[in-house]
């Protein structure tokens, strides 16, 4: 079973962050993905006048399309419940179907404009 939890305790985050090569000294909120009770991914979000996804990583043994897709869509859904701009500091065509558009230094979408396309492409 997959579940996502907000975790603020650095001591709880540190072992997984180290495995993922993530720096917890940067500011931001941490959302942790668990698979069958085992932590396997972290999404870090810096919230200012926008929500900036700064890190999105899964352990290699859990990093498959279905798991990544669930994690990303679940987070986008939570963001879609509040009026905020979501920014990702890279340009990736996989973000376009969700409503993201290019900016000078990444891609963004207004939370109320998020689209949830079928993952099967049908």
Describe the structure concisely.
With 122 residues, the protein is an alpha+beta fold. It has helices at residues 10-20, 65-79, and strands at residues 2-6, 29-35, 38-47, 50-58, 85-88, 101-103, 106-110. It is globular, with a radius of gyration of 14 Å.
Tell me what the structure shows:
The protein has helices at about 10-20, 65-80, and strands spanning about 1-5, 30-35, 40-45, 50-60, 85-90, 100-105, 105-110. The chain has a domain at about 1-80: 3-Layer(aba) Sandwich (Aminopeptidase). It has a 7-stranded mixed β-sheet, sandwiched between helices. The radius of gyration is 14 Å and the shape is globular. It is built from 2 helices and 7 strands. The relative contact order is 0.15. It is about 20% helix and about 35% strand. A hairpin with a 2-residue loop joins strand 6 and strand 7. The model has no long low-confidence stretch (mean pLDDT about 95). The longest helix is centred in the middle third of the chain and has 15 residues, at about 65-80. The two termini are about 25 Å apart. The protein is α+β, with helices and mostly antiparallel strands.
Reported by name, the CATH topology of the domain at 2-81 is Aminopeptidase
Mean pLDDT: 93
From the alpha-carbon coordinates, what is the Rg to the nearest angstrom?
14 Å
Number of strands: 7
- From the helix content, strand content and strand pairing, which structural class follows? alpha+beta
Task: List the SSEs and their pairings.
Layout: E1 2-6, H1 10-20, E2 29-35, E3 38-47, E4 50-58, H2 65-79, E5 85-88, E6 101-103, E7 106-110
Parallel strand pairs: 4-5
Antiparallel strand pairs: 1-2, 2-3, 3-4, 5-7, 6-7
